[in-house]
Amino acid sequence: MPPKRQREQTEPANSESDAVLDRSAQAQRGNHLTTAQGVRLPDTDHSLKAGSRGPSLMEDFHLREKITHFDHERIPERVVHARGAAAHGTFRAYGTASSVTKAGFLEKDRETPVFVRFSTVLGSRGSADTVRDVRGFAVKFYTAEGNFDLVGNNMPVFFIQDGIKFPDVIHAGKPHPDREIPQAQTAHDTFWDFVSLHTEATHHVMWAMSDRGIPRSYRTMEGFGVHTFRLVNAEGETSLVKFHWKPVAGVHSLVWEEAQIAAGADPDFHRRDMADGIDAGAPLEFELGLQIMPDSEDETFEGIDLLDPTKLVPEELAEVQLVGKLTLDRNPTNYFAETEQVAFHTANLVPGIEVTDDPLMQARLFSYLDTQLTRLGGPNFTQLPINCPHAAVNDNLRDGMHQTLVHHGQAPYLPNSVDDALPTPATESEGAYVHRPIEVTGPKIRANPVSFDDHFSQATLFWKSLSGIEKVHVIEAFTFELGKCFAQTIQERVLGSLARVDAELCAAVAGGLGLPAPEGTADADVTPSPALSQIPAKPGPIAGRVIGVVATSGADLGGIGKLRRTVEAKGAILRVLAPAGGTLKRGRGRQPVARTFLTARSIEFDAVVVADGTAGLHDIKLTVLLQELFRHCKVIGAWGDGARVLTDAGIDVEAPGLVLADEIAKPFSTELIDAIGWHRVWERAEQVMND
């Protein structure tokens, strides 16, 4: 059932959020309606008039304040990553990173509050969650040494190598300026025109066209820092690193039809899944991993240029070493105050972590701060509660728009002799952030190193690392996206790039477009990386997964109760589907109905089980739901005569992934949980492909 909500206009109760939101900064302090100045009001339904039928009066300060604030209650949305959802949590370090970095938040058993925002890149705030796109994975660590922002994506590489082209790739991907369509998608001419003319984008396009572009949920999505960073340990020794977030729930995605259904039936699919899971006691969990590489003079590793953001380092070459666990277990209290106003910045670093000369990263160091000045109305956005560091701040910065602090003293400059020479600069031993003295030489030039010219070998690596069903999905995605392009010249240019990736891929996409496949030479010497495939090697946890049980008032409600207790003990959520709402009753049994056949769609369930006692149940909406689940390779089960409902719906009960039993017992529950842990029954899809 929906979680119990706090009344909106009462003073917030003491909670963990007080660690982030100072009591003096909280709204709704008191039970009487007031103006913004604290003056109590007797009426907010009628404006002040000259008589009951007369004109409204200018002196109605409450009317003017109320309307003015309403007129200005929206701020400019982010240019990119506008649609997002977030959660609070904690990061606990394992202590295994102490040899490579002196960053305090990575010390053993250190717990650090965090705020994490997930997002899509291209769409507006009103777009859908499940569009094919890159997902932002931005983590704000409120460390004792200051805020550290690890601002990454769910893909380890990017479209471009130099940040000067970022406005171009975003302009190309955004809706066309003449019609403002299509929204939140890349299936149009300008995007593919750009990437076909910038072949450095080929590797990232492969990721975006794979299932990685349509994740199942935020909890089943990997995260990457994208860039190479420099770590510094207590002895001043340096190493290069790539950051990884590994989801405890495994890496899983939607299938394309599911993504399309969700965009229409529930555009809030991902944010709802996260919020409901947290409310149900199933937090999102990720482990932070480091790929450590030597800080060599040429900043390359195994022939891979570590400053090229279109390249990854295969995990088989550099193991991802786990150094801590992130747990997201608390939803925001207010979307605008927290999720919308949070300001991430790649230059928010702590001692022990530095940036490198990656030209995309270098541009981001400017861009993130610059955009907040417009979006949040001035330089004091760090004073917003969600952005406030938990470390002591004494910055000598003054005034500006939205200054909410009352500064003391007369000398906001250094050195000074008026304010007792305070604040004083710190030394490195006192925790100051001191940049490593790295020598920089070279002519002023607009150019890339020669190593940046390899645009295809890692795209081939990614393709050859996928399973058969994943390759089919990539082919279908390219065919769909390019099929939406009107210019054949653009389609032909993309096919030319795909020919450099793999002949099979190119021929299949060309066939779908009705065009000849161009000849090309792919890099055949790559070694596949199993870590790039999402197909799991073993079943994972089912925490946060949603299991639907089809039932009627004549169903085995006792069996449903047993199943509920079993799956909820694993952190999963059970929802009863029935022809009508209310509560199902039979004898002493009671089961609340969470969804009716009218309000449910297949996309919200990871598995559906039909209860005993439902034989003879016929409903076209249920039939469609079951057929979609079957087509999407999800687990379907039944006990007792519930199997007849599946047969009547045209479901092949002999197909892979059908869990059947005469009654609810441990073997049935165990088999069901194990099957859901695999996420999909891919054998079913392969069977259809072979047929």
UniProtKB/TrEMBL annotation:
<feature type="binding site" description="axial binding residue">
    <location>
        <position position="368"/>
    </location>
    <ligand>
        <name>heme</name>
    </ligand>
</feature>
<protein>
    <recommendedName>
        <fullName>Catalase</fullName>
        <ecNumber>1.11.1.6</ecNumber>
    </recommendedName>
</protein>
<dbReference type="InterPro" id="IPR018028">
    <property type="entry name" value="Catalase"/>
</dbReference>
<keyword id="KW-0575">Peroxidase</keyword>
<dbReference type="InterPro" id="IPR010582">
    <property type="entry name" value="Catalase_immune_responsive"/>
</dbReference>
<dbReference type="Pfam" id="PF06628">
    <property type="entry name" value="Catalase-rel"/>
</dbReference>
<dbReference type="InterPro" id="IPR024708">
    <property type="entry name" value="Catalase_AS"/>
</dbReference>
<keyword id="KW-0479">Metal-binding</keyword>
<feature type="domain" description="Catalase core">
    <location>
        <begin position="34"/>
        <end position="422"/>
    </location>
</feature>
<feature type="region of interest" description="Disordered">
    <location>
        <begin position="1"/>
        <end position="32"/>
    </location>
</feature>
<dbReference type="GO" id="GO:0042744">
    <property type="term" value="P:hydrogen peroxide catabolic process"/>
</dbReference>
<feature type="compositionally biased region" description="Basic and acidic residues">
    <location>
        <begin position="1"/>
        <end position="10"/>
    </location>
</feature>
<dbReference type="InterPro" id="IPR043156">
    <property type="entry name" value="Catalase_clade2_helical"/>
</dbReference>
<dbReference type="Pfam" id="PF18011">
    <property type="entry name" value="Catalase_C"/>
</dbReference>
<dbReference type="Pfam" id="PF00199">
    <property type="entry name" value="Catalase"/>
</dbReference>
<feature type="binding site">
    <location>
        <position position="166"/>
    </location>
    <ligand>
        <name>heme</name>
    </ligand>
</feature>
<feature type="binding site">
    <location>
        <position position="117"/>
    </location>
    <ligand>
        <name>heme</name>
    </ligand>
</feature>
<feature type="active site">
    <location>
        <position position="153"/>
    </location>
</feature>
<keyword id="KW-0349">Heme</keyword>
<feature type="binding site">
    <location>
        <position position="78"/>
    </location>
    <ligand>
        <name>heme</name>
    </ligand>
</feature>
<dbReference type="InterPro" id="IPR029062">
    <property type="entry name" value="Class_I_gatase-like"/>
</dbReference>
<comment type="similarity">
    <text>Belongs to the catalase family. HPII subfamily.</text>
</comment>
<feature type="cross-link" description="3'-histidyl-3-tyrosine (His-Tyr)">
    <location>
        <begin position="345"/>
        <end position="368"/>
    </location>
</feature>
<dbReference type="GO" id="GO:0006979">
    <property type="term" value="P:response to oxidative stress"/>
</dbReference>
<feature type="active site">
    <location>
        <position position="81"/>
    </location>
</feature>
<dbReference type="InterPro" id="IPR002226">
    <property type="entry name" value="Catalase_haem_BS"/>
</dbReference>
<dbReference type="InterPro" id="IPR024712">
    <property type="entry name" value="Catalase_clade2"/>
</dbReference>
<dbReference type="GO" id="GO:0046872">
    <property type="term" value="F:metal ion binding"/>
</dbReference>
<dbReference type="InterPro" id="IPR041399">
    <property type="entry name" value="Catalase_large_C"/>
</dbReference>
<feature type="binding site">
    <location>
        <position position="375"/>
    </location>
    <ligand>
        <name>heme</name>
    </ligand>
</feature>
<dbReference type="GO" id="GO:0004096">
    <property type="term" value="F:catalase activity"/>
</dbReference>
<dbReference type="GO" id="GO:0020037">
    <property type="term" value="F:heme binding"/>
</dbReference>
<comment type="function">
    <text>Decomposes hydrogen peroxide into water and oxygen; serves to protect cells from the toxic effects of hydrogen peroxide.</text>
</comment>
<keyword id="KW-0376">Hydrogen peroxide</keyword>
<keyword id="KW-0560">Oxidoreductase</keyword>
<dbReference type="InterPro" id="IPR020835">
    <property type="entry name" value="Catalase_sf"/>
</dbReference>
<dbReference type="GO" id="GO:0005829">
    <property type="term" value="C:cytosol"/>
</dbReference>
<keyword id="KW-0408">Iron</keyword>
<feature type="binding site">
    <location>
        <position position="364"/>
    </location>
    <ligand>
        <name>heme</name>
    </ligand>
</feature>
<dbReference type="InterPro" id="IPR011614">
    <property type="entry name" value="Catalase_core"/>
</dbReference>
